[in-house]
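Entry 14. Ran structure prediction on the chain below.
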Amino acid sequence: MDEKIREIMLEDSFRKYVGAEVEEFRPGYARVKALVKKEFLNFHGVAHGGFILSVADFAFAIAGNADNVKRMALNINMDFYSSAKEGDVLIGEAEMITGGKRIGFYELRVSKNGEIIAKGTAIVYGKGEKFIKDK
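Output, structure tokens:
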């Protein structure tokens, strides 16, 4: 089942656009990485906050759906501690703090070179529906 879920995650068109790679996932946890490219910089010449949040959000989407239960984000809050520049590799992690089949509360982290540059929380909700149907 994990391989089918991984295949679906890798086909995500937004993942392809931002160039994020899935490094690890299991129910309630995911780690992804993405390279800061020139097109992701803001007018200050650093990674746009939307890109940094997207790295965390992609990890969150995987962590929240890794058990084959279809869930969607209800809320994401993110605090930015530091910036990232072109060429930096960002690591996004999402980890469930508490929850169950329908709702989950997550901690999100984005780091570069081992330093956390953004941290936040997120809530996910689903009705228990599987997105890969059992045969």
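The chain has three helices and six strands. Will compare against last week's run tomorrow.
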